[in-house]
Amino acid sequence: MCAQAGFLGVGYATEACTRLLEFAFSETMLNAVFATTDDENHASQNVLTKSGMRAVGPVRAFAGEYPGYKVMREDWVSEKGLNSPKV
User: Fold this and answer.
1) pTM given for the model
2) How confident is the model over 29-38, as pLDDT tens digits?
3) Beta bridge partners of residue 61, listed in sequence order
């Protein structure tokens, strides 16, 4: 994702990530969502943690090892109080 300087650090990526996780757990039957990011991309790592994901250590992806993050349905629902999926 490329963003102009005026839009960096104001929470748009965190809001988008949070909404995607909300959709994943309220509109689908997914039990977990996993994500990776470059180990030097601290801004993206912050977005993932602020959105409710937890660091799980390095994971193998894209022919390398990268910081891994995940959130489980039960954790998300208990924190956010969401209802069952509508599917």
Assistant:
1) 0.81
2) 999 999 999 9
3) 64
